[in-house]
Amino acid sequence: MYPSNYRYTKEHEWIRIENGIGTVGITDYAQHELGDVVFVELPKAGAKLSAGQSFGTVESVKAVSEIYSPVSGEVLETNTSLANEPEKINKDPHGAAWLIKLKIANAAELNTLMDAAAYQTYISEKQKEAAH
Amino acid sequence: MTDRIKKASRHTSQSEGLIFEKSAPGKRGIELPRLDVPAVDARQALSAAHVRETVNGFPEVSEIEVIRHFTRLSTWNYAIDLGMYPLGSCTMKYNPRVNEFVARLDGIATEHPFQPIQLSQGCLKIMQALQNCLLEITGMDAVTLEPSSGAQGELTGLLLIRAYLESQGNPRQKVLIPDSAHGTNPATAVIAGYQVENIRSDARGQIDVERLRQTITEDVAALMVTNPSTLGVFEQHIAEIAEILHANGSLLYMDGANMNALAGIARPGDFGVDVMHINLHKTFSTPHGGGGPGAGPVMVKKILEPFLPVPVLAGKSDGTLTLDFSRPKSVGRMRAFCGNFGVLVRALAYALAYGPGIRQATEDAVLNANYIRKHLEDVYELPYKSPSMHEVVFSDARQKKYGVNTIDIAKRLIDYGFHPYTTAFPLIVPGAMMIEPTESEPKEECDLFIDAMRAIAEEAATNPEVVKTAPHSTRVGRLDEVSAARKPILRWQPKASGEAAD
Amino acid sequence: MRYLPKSPSERQQMLAAIGVRSMEELFTSIPAAHRLNRPLNLLGPLSEMEIIDYFRARAAENSCGYTSFLGAGVYNHLRSVVTDALIQRGEFLTSYTPYQPEISQGTLQAIFEFQTLMCQLTGQEVANASMWDGSTALTEAVLMAQRLTGRHQAIVARSLHPEYRDVLATYARNVSLEIDEVAYTPTGQIDAAALRTAVNDATAAVVVQSPNFFGVLEQVPELAEIAHAKQALLVVAITEAVSLGIVRPPAEADIVAMEGQSFGLAPSYGGPFVGVIATREKFVRQMPGRLTGQTTDHAGRRGFVLTLATREQHIRREKATSNICTNQALCALAAAIHLCLLGKEGLKELAQQNLAKARFAAAELAKIPGVQRAFSGPSFNEFVVELPRSVKMVNADLLQDKIIGPLPLSGFYPELSKRGLVCVTETTPRAEIERLAASLRQILDRPV
Question: C319, A64: Cβ pair inside 8 Å?
Answer without folding.
Answer: yes
